[in-house]
């Protein structure tokens, strides 16, 4: 109630009408359909695809749907606890242009102490010019992770402490702005605090 519309701006991706007017339902049309179909409902509730809609998810994954890779990344990383598979799918989501996938991939890399690469992906969101995109991504990612039971990993504490050590200036301002490392620490800290709250 009263939520910012930008947090819920999961728009349905329209499929080219010229492709649907053909009677040729070839494999390329099917692939295009499953690659471009919006999975916004499932992105907000990824556990729905864990078993109930498994075949649909698999078709979308096979077709390279970036939202499907985002959902699978969440399920692999936080439910099945398969870090390698989770990060793979989140990267596919990011490479497919899904900004929430980019945000969560960058954040997850920070959480496993791959700081340089995580920073690189978070920088793709242009936070230095305007933080609103990353703030909106964080709100949607939190919504996606709400259904996931406790997923706190001890390594996240260590990553947060190590990033804080690297960022001795996180509380100081540079020309009225938080330094770069302070931004990354702030994002990782938000994530760790959110994960810890899931245990309460």
TrEMBL record:
<dbReference type="InterPro" id="IPR040338">
    <property type="entry name" value="At1g67623-like"/>
</dbReference>
<dbReference type="Pfam" id="PF23310">
    <property type="entry name" value="TPR_27"/>
</dbReference>
<feature type="domain" description="At2g35280-like TPR">
    <location>
        <begin position="51"/>
        <end position="144"/>
    </location>
</feature>
<dbReference type="InterPro" id="IPR057136">
    <property type="entry name" value="At2g35280_TPR_dom"/>
</dbReference>
<protein>
    <submittedName>
        <fullName>F-box protein At2g35280-like</fullName>
    </submittedName>
</protein>
């Amino acid at each position: 109630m009263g939520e910012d519309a930008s947090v819920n701006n999961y728009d349905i991706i329209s499929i080219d009408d010229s492709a649907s007017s053909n009677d040729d339902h070839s494999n390329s049309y099917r692939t295009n359909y499953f690659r471009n179909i919006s999975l916004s409902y499932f992105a907000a509730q990824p556990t729905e695809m864990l078993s109930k809609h498994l075949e649909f998810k698999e078709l979308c994954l096979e077709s390279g749907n970036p939202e499907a890779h985002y959902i699978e990344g969440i399920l692999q990383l936080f439910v099945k606890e398969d870090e390698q598979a989770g990060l793979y799918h989140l990267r596919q989501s990011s490479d497919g242009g899904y900004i929430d996938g980019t945000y969560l991939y960058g954040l997850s890399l920070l959480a496993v102490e791959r700081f340089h690469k995580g920073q690189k992906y978070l920088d793709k969101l242009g936070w230095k010019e305007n933080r609103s995109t990353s703030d909106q991504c964080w709100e949607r990612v939190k919504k996606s992770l709400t259904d996931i039971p406790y997923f706190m990993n001890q390594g996240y504490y260590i990553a947060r402490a190590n990033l804080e050590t690297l960022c001795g200036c996180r509380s100081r301002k540079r020309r009225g702005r938080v330094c770069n490392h302070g931004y990354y620490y702030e994002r990782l800290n938000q994530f760790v605090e959110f994960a810890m709250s899931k245990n309460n």
